[in-house]
Amino acid sequence: MKKRCGACDSQKIIENLAITDRIDALNSFELSIPIQRKPDALFFKDKRNHPLRASVCGNCGKVELSIENPARFYEDFLESKNR
Known about the structure:
Strand content: 35-45%
Structural class: mainly beta
Order of helices and strands: EEEEEEH
Shape: flat
Largest sheet: 4 strands, antiparallel
Number of strands: 6
Helix content: 10-25%
Number of helices: 1
């Protein structure tokens, strides 16, 4: 079953798109949510970046964001809180 848009119920969904930002004409970077797994450390905080992904409706233009690997994101989040 194809994914449907939550706004217009269309099946014209483009999934798993990378979201980038441009620094200048030649350089860009992928947007992500960082988690510092050792936030109390003075150095080497063991930061992990979790890439954002977008799904876009080709009918109404609604955009939904998600994390590439939600299970890993949650594990890193819990680890950062247990330190």
